[in-house]
Protein backbone atom coordinates (compact mmCIF):
# COMPACT_ATOMS: atom_id res chain seq x y z
CA UNK A 1 0.00 0.00 0.00
CA UNK A 2 1.26 3.47 -0.89
CA UNK A 3 0.76 6.78 0.90
CA UNK A 4 0.87 10.34 -0.41
CA UNK A 5 1.90 13.07 2.03
CA UNK A 6 0.73 16.69 1.75
CA UNK A 7 1.98 19.73 3.64
CA UNK A 8 -0.82 22.01 4.83
CA UNK A 9 0.98 24.97 6.35
CA UNK A 10 0.24 28.68 6.22
CA UNK A 11 -0.57 31.80 8.23
CA UNK A 12 -4.32 31.08 8.12
CA UNK A 13 -6.40 27.97 7.51
CA UNK A 14 -9.94 26.84 8.32
CA UNK A 15 -11.52 23.37 8.17
CA UNK A 16 -15.18 23.77 9.06
CA UNK A 17 -17.64 20.87 9.22
CA UNK A 18 -20.58 22.42 11.14
CA UNK A 19 -20.81 25.94 9.73
CA UNK A 20 -24.09 27.61 8.95
CA UNK A 21 -25.21 31.12 8.06
CA UNK A 22 -23.20 33.78 9.95
CA UNK A 23 -20.88 31.55 12.00
CA UNK A 24 -18.10 29.66 10.24
CA UNK A 25 -16.33 27.17 12.45
CA UNK A 26 -13.01 25.38 12.06
CA UNK A 27 -11.84 22.02 13.30
CA UNK A 28 -8.47 21.70 15.03
CA UNK A 29 -7.10 19.68 12.10
CA UNK A 30 -7.95 19.39 8.39
CA UNK A 31 -11.28 17.78 7.49
CA UNK A 32 -11.44 15.00 4.93
CA UNK A 33 -13.93 16.93 2.83
CA UNK A 34 -11.55 19.90 2.77
CA UNK A 35 -8.51 17.81 1.82
CA UNK A 36 -10.37 15.93 -0.91
CA UNK A 37 -11.64 19.27 -2.22
CA UNK A 38 -8.06 20.54 -2.39
CA UNK A 39 -6.99 17.41 -4.28
CA UNK A 40 -9.93 17.76 -6.68
CA UNK A 41 -8.89 21.35 -7.40
CA UNK A 42 -5.36 20.23 -8.18
CA UNK A 43 -6.70 17.60 -10.58
CA UNK A 44 -9.17 20.02 -12.18
CA UNK A 45 -12.25 17.98 -11.21
CA UNK A 46 -15.46 19.98 -11.55
CA UNK A 47 -17.82 20.19 -8.56
CA UNK A 48 -20.45 18.30 -10.57
CA UNK A 49 -18.21 15.28 -11.19
CA UNK A 50 -18.03 12.06 -9.21
CA UNK A 51 -15.19 11.87 -6.65
CA UNK A 52 -15.74 8.35 -5.32
CA UNK A 53 -12.17 7.29 -6.15
CA UNK A 54 -10.82 10.18 -4.05
CA UNK A 55 -13.29 9.78 -1.20
CA UNK A 56 -12.33 6.15 -0.51
CA UNK A 57 -8.70 7.08 0.18
CA UNK A 58 -7.87 6.60 3.85
CA UNK A 59 -6.71 9.82 5.53
CA UNK A 60 -4.51 10.60 8.50
CA UNK A 61 -3.12 13.83 9.98
CA UNK A 62 0.01 14.55 11.98
CA UNK A 63 -0.26 17.86 13.83
CA UNK A 64 3.21 19.41 13.73
CA UNK A 65 2.01 22.78 14.99
CA UNK A 66 -1.43 23.15 16.55
CA UNK A 67 -1.90 26.78 15.61
CA UNK A 68 -3.91 29.41 17.49
CA UNK A 69 -7.69 29.64 17.19
CA UNK A 70 -8.71 33.12 16.00
CA UNK A 71 -11.92 34.80 14.88
CA UNK A 72 -12.32 37.16 11.94
CA UNK A 73 -15.33 39.39 12.67
CA UNK A 74 -16.93 40.91 9.56
CA UNK A 75 -19.88 43.15 8.79
CA UNK A 76 -21.66 43.84 5.51
CA UNK A 77 -23.98 46.80 4.98
CA UNK A 78 -27.06 47.01 2.80
CA UNK A 79 -27.60 43.26 2.36
CA UNK A 80 -30.95 42.32 0.80
CA UNK A 81 -32.22 38.90 1.87
CA UNK A 82 -33.79 36.25 -0.35
CA UNK A 83 -37.28 37.58 0.28
CA UNK A 84 -36.33 40.97 -1.12
CA UNK A 85 -36.82 42.86 2.13
CA UNK A 86 -35.15 46.17 2.78
CA UNK A 87 -31.35 46.22 3.13
CA UNK A 88 -29.90 45.38 6.51
CA UNK A 89 -26.51 45.05 8.14
CA UNK A 90 -25.18 41.50 8.51
CA UNK A 91 -22.56 40.32 10.98
CA UNK A 92 -20.44 37.17 10.59
CA UNK A 93 -17.88 35.36 12.73
CA UNK A 94 -15.29 33.32 10.80
CA UNK A 95 -12.99 31.16 12.89
CA UNK A 96 -9.58 30.02 11.66
CA UNK A 97 -6.26 28.57 12.82
CA UNK A 98 -3.26 30.88 12.77
CA UNK A 99 0.24 29.55 12.05
CA UNK A 100 -0.72 25.85 12.05
CA UNK A 101 1.22 23.08 10.29
CA UNK A 102 -0.25 19.70 9.34
CA UNK A 103 1.22 16.69 7.58
CA UNK A 104 -1.68 14.90 5.86
CA UNK A 105 -1.46 11.39 4.46
CA UNK A 106 -3.73 9.72 1.90
CA UNK A 107 -3.43 5.94 1.60
CA UNK A 108 -4.74 3.93 -1.34
CA UNK A 109 -4.18 3.01 -4.98
CA UNK A 110 -0.62 3.89 -6.02
CA UNK A 111 -1.48 4.93 -9.59
CA UNK A 112 -4.10 7.37 -8.33
CA UNK A 113 -1.70 8.76 -5.72
CA UNK A 114 0.97 9.24 -8.40
CA UNK A 115 -1.53 11.23 -10.46
CA UNK A 116 -2.43 13.39 -7.45
CA UNK A 117 1.25 13.91 -6.62
CA UNK A 118 1.91 15.29 -10.09
CA UNK A 119 -1.18 17.51 -9.93
CA UNK A 120 -0.07 19.06 -6.63
CA UNK A 121 3.15 20.17 -8.33
CA UNK A 122 1.23 21.76 -11.23
CA UNK A 123 -2.39 22.23 -10.09
CA UNK A 124 -5.15 23.02 -12.56
CA UNK A 125 -6.87 25.41 -10.13
CA UNK A 126 -5.45 27.38 -7.20
CA UNK A 127 -5.08 25.51 -3.91
CA UNK A 128 -6.23 26.97 -0.61
CA UNK A 129 -6.43 25.87 3.02
CA UNK A 130 -10.15 25.63 3.62
CA UNK A 131 -11.11 29.09 2.33
CA UNK A 132 -10.20 30.75 -0.95
CA UNK A 133 -8.32 33.59 0.73
CA UNK A 134 -6.13 31.22 2.79
CA UNK A 135 -3.20 30.39 0.54
CA UNK A 136 -0.69 27.69 1.53
CA UNK A 137 2.85 28.71 2.31
CA UNK A 138 5.05 26.77 1.70
CA UNK A 139 3.65 24.57 -1.14
CA UNK A 140 1.36 21.61 -0.46
CA UNK A 141 3.53 19.50 -2.76
CA UNK A 142 6.37 17.53 -1.15
CA UNK A 143 8.96 16.19 -3.65
CA UNK A 144 9.39 13.02 -1.58
CA UNK A 145 5.75 12.85 -0.54
CA UNK A 146 4.87 9.62 -2.38
CA UNK A 147 5.86 6.85 0.03
CA UNK A 148 6.08 3.07 -0.34
CA UNK A 149 4.64 2.44 3.13
CA UNK A 150 1.38 2.47 5.02
CA UNK A 151 -0.37 5.57 6.27
CA UNK A 152 0.66 5.37 9.92
CA UNK A 153 4.29 4.58 9.14
CA UNK A 154 4.58 7.35 6.54
CA UNK A 155 3.18 9.96 8.92
CA UNK A 156 5.42 8.85 11.79
CA UNK A 157 8.69 8.76 9.86
CA UNK A 158 8.51 11.93 7.78
CA UNK A 159 10.65 14.87 8.99
CA UNK A 160 9.11 17.54 11.19
CA UNK A 161 7.62 20.16 8.85
CA UNK A 162 8.83 23.37 10.58
CA UNK A 163 12.37 21.93 10.54
CA UNK A 164 12.26 21.69 6.74
CA UNK A 165 12.08 25.50 6.62
CA UNK A 166 14.42 26.17 9.55
CA UNK A 167 16.70 23.32 10.72
CA UNK A 168 17.13 25.09 14.06
CA UNK A 169 13.49 24.36 14.96
CA UNK A 170 13.22 21.21 17.07
CA UNK A 171 10.14 18.93 17.08
CA UNK A 172 7.66 19.10 19.91
CA UNK A 173 8.13 16.49 22.62
CA UNK A 174 5.04 14.64 21.36
CA UNK A 175 2.90 15.12 18.27
CA UNK A 176 -0.83 14.56 17.89
CA UNK A 177 -2.10 12.12 15.26
CA UNK A 178 -5.67 11.79 13.94
CA UNK A 179 -6.04 8.61 11.87
CA UNK A 180 -9.03 7.23 9.99
CA UNK A 181 -9.93 3.85 11.53
CA UNK A 182 -12.55 1.10 11.74
CA UNK A 183 -13.85 2.45 15.04
CA UNK A 184 -13.37 5.50 17.25
CA UNK A 185 -14.76 9.05 17.21
CA UNK A 186 -17.52 9.66 14.69
CA UNK A 187 -16.95 12.62 12.35
CA UNK A 188 -19.26 13.81 9.57
CA UNK A 189 -16.82 14.97 6.89
CA UNK A 190 -16.79 12.02 4.47
CA UNK A 191 -17.69 13.28 0.95
CA UNK A 192 -20.70 11.45 -0.50
CA UNK A 193 -21.28 12.24 -4.16
CA UNK A 194 -20.19 15.35 -6.07
CA UNK A 195 -19.29 18.44 -4.07
CA UNK A 196 -22.15 20.33 -5.73
CA UNK A 197 -24.60 18.15 -3.76
CA UNK A 198 -22.97 19.10 -0.42
CA UNK A 199 -23.62 15.67 1.06
CA UNK A 200 -21.28 14.31 3.74
CA UNK A 201 -21.37 11.00 5.54
CA UNK A 202 -19.73 9.55 8.64
CA UNK A 203 -16.30 8.03 9.24
CA UNK A 204 -14.32 7.08 12.33
CA UNK A 205 -11.03 8.52 13.56
CA UNK A 206 -8.74 7.81 16.49
CA UNK A 207 -6.41 10.31 18.15
CA UNK A 208 -2.96 9.38 19.42
CA UNK A 209 0.08 11.20 20.80
CA UNK A 210 3.61 9.98 20.08
CA UNK A 211 7.16 11.13 19.51
CA UNK A 212 8.37 11.82 15.98
CA UNK A 213 9.31 8.49 14.41
CA UNK A 214 7.21 6.40 16.79
CA UNK A 215 4.56 4.38 14.96
CA UNK A 216 1.23 4.61 16.78
CA UNK A 217 -1.19 1.72 17.22
CA UNK A 218 -4.43 2.17 15.25
CA UNK A 219 -7.28 -0.39 15.29
Please describe what this structure looks like:
The protein has 219 residues and is an alpha+beta fold. It has one domain: Alpha-Beta Plaits (2-Layer Sandwich), CATH 3.30.70. 18% of the residues lie in helices and 37% in strands. It is built from five helices and nine strands; from the N terminus they run ββααβββαβααβββ. Strands 1, 2, 3, 4, 5, 6, 7, 8 and 9 form a nine-stranded mixed beta sheet that branches. The longest helix is centred in the first third of the chain and has 12 residues. It starts with a strand and ends in a 9-residue tail after the last strand.
Secondary structure elements and pairings:
Blueprint: E1 2-13, E2 23-24, H1 32-43, H2 52-55, E3 58-65, E4 68-79, E5 88-108, H3 110-121, E6 146-147, H4 151-157, H5 161-165, E7 175-181, E8 185-191, E9 200-210
Parallel strand pairs: 2-5
Antiparallel strand pairs: 1-5, 1-6, 3-5, 3-7, 4-5, 7-9, 8-9
Structural class: alpha+beta
Beta-strand fraction estimate? 35-45%
| Count of runs of 4 or more consecutive helical residues | 5
Question: What is the CATH class name?
Answer: Alpha Beta
Mean pLDDT: 91
**How many domains is the backbone divided into?**
1
Largest sheet: 9 strands, mixed
CATH fold group: Alpha-Beta Plaits
Q: Judging by the overall fold, what is the CATH architecture?
A: 2-Layer Sandwich
Low-confidence stretches: none
Number of separate strands: 9
The shape is globular
> What is the radius of gyration?
18 Å
Summarize the helix and strand pattern as letters: EEHHEEEHEHHEEE
Q: First CA to last CA: what distance?
A: 17 Å
Helix content: 10-25%
Amino acid sequence: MATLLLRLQGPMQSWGTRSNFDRRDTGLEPSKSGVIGLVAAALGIDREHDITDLAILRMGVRVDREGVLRCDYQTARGVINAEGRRPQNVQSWRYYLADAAFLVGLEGNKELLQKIHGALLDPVWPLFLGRKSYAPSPPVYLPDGLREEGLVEALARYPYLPSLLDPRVQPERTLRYVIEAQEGRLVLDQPVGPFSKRRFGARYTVSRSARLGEVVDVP
